Amino acid sequence: MSTQRVFVARLAGCTVFDPAGDRVGRVRDVVVIYRKDDPPRVIGLVVEIPGRRNVFLSIGRVTSIATGQVITTGLINVRRFKQRGGEVRVMVELLGRKVYFRDGSGHAVIEDVAIEQDRLGMWSVGQLFLRKPKTSASPFAKGPTTFAEWSDVREQQNPGEAQSAEQLVATYSELKPADLANTLLDLPDERLLEVAEELPDDRLADALEEMPEDEQVHILEQLGDERAADILDAMEPDDAADVLGQLPETRLEKLLELMEPEEADDVRELLKYGPDTAGGLMTSEPIVLPADATVAEALALIRRHELHPALAAAVFITLPPYETPTGRLLGTVHFQRMLRYPPHERLGAIIDDTVDPVPVTASAAEVARLLASYNLVSMPVVDPAHRLVGAVSVDDVLDYLLPEDWRSQDGEDTVEPVPTTTASIPRRR
């Protein structure tokens, strides 16, 4: 008979604390192993610790699981989690799985899984929260829900039938792009591609922008050409150009042809420049305004939530036309400077002309030096005719200067365990 029950979907995201009350990380998943005649046994949790690294926390090190928090003994092995044979992740692999009722009454999809602790302190899978097929033809209708014990259902997946990833995608809806990218890369390859298929274009685009280029290429190669083109449309032009530059010429051209013409033109322009130049690092979509635009108009533009913070730090004043490549660049107006003037002030009167733009041929090292020298987060990039063609930001330069595998580095030399006892770290068996 169980003494405690926790549903995994509610447990995901809960904070993990050590006995002193210090935050260790957040729960990302529950790991179970199947048993022949009994429900799967819980062997541990996947916990995300600082540095966005997922580690394994043995269930034996968990002293309490309560609403909104998990308490541990305080001893965490910070080695990156790697799923082993026979281990099953509840969030990643069980949610969304189709099961059949043993009494022959039909099938349902697992929407949540309860784990239960017995009187001996052992945790195992208990009740399942299931959704049956809908009975109404309405597109807004959902099937009825029910609870069932693990012993009441059986798993069966027909050949060629993909496991639903909708429930898993729903649990990722609040993750920031960098966290979503890290979570996706921790999934088994087959599951990663299933989730990628279910994610909205803009969410997958945001996540891809935070991944190493080889992972971007791998995912795009598995998607159909039309879906891949849609994802590239949703990415920032410079990020799309970076990943397209890694593809074979034939597929590159095919995807460019399938992209929206305006987006494809921006990417083609960026592909002309070397990857280690200002032209290759820049984005072709900075905020461009005429000299007679007001401070109020500029502030309204930089408030857009989808705008990258580095690009929102300044607007660029040019002669017409006002889309890159623009007319001649007149200068830059920084966000902080705008705050010092009334809303009706014309931008042309408050231009900062002390910082020269960088040419498209400038090296990444030169751009980095200028950004550091003038304490800037972005700089205008111009062509030989002094027309604005884009802006390069500090994050673009950092992406280039850091090692290629910086996103996936564990930082094991700098992250220490959090020992509060002298007990040894248990081994996974």
From TrEMBL:
Q: Where is this region: Disordered?
A: 409-429
Return the Polar residues bias intervals: 419-429
User: Can you give the residue ranges of the CBS domain?
Assistant: 282-350, 351-408
- Please name the Gene3D superfamilies in this protein's record: CBS-domain, MgtE N-terminal domain-like
Is the RNA-binding keyword given for this protein?
no
Q: Which CDD domains match?
A: CBS_pair_Mg_transporter
Give the keywords, sorted.
CBS domain
Q: Which domain of life is it from?
A: Bacteria
Q: Which PROSITE patterns match?
A: CBS
Which Pfam families does this UniProt record tie to the protein? Answer: CBS, MgtE_N, SH3_actinomycetes
Q: What is this protein called?
A: CBS domain-containing protein
Originating organism: Microbacterium horticulturae
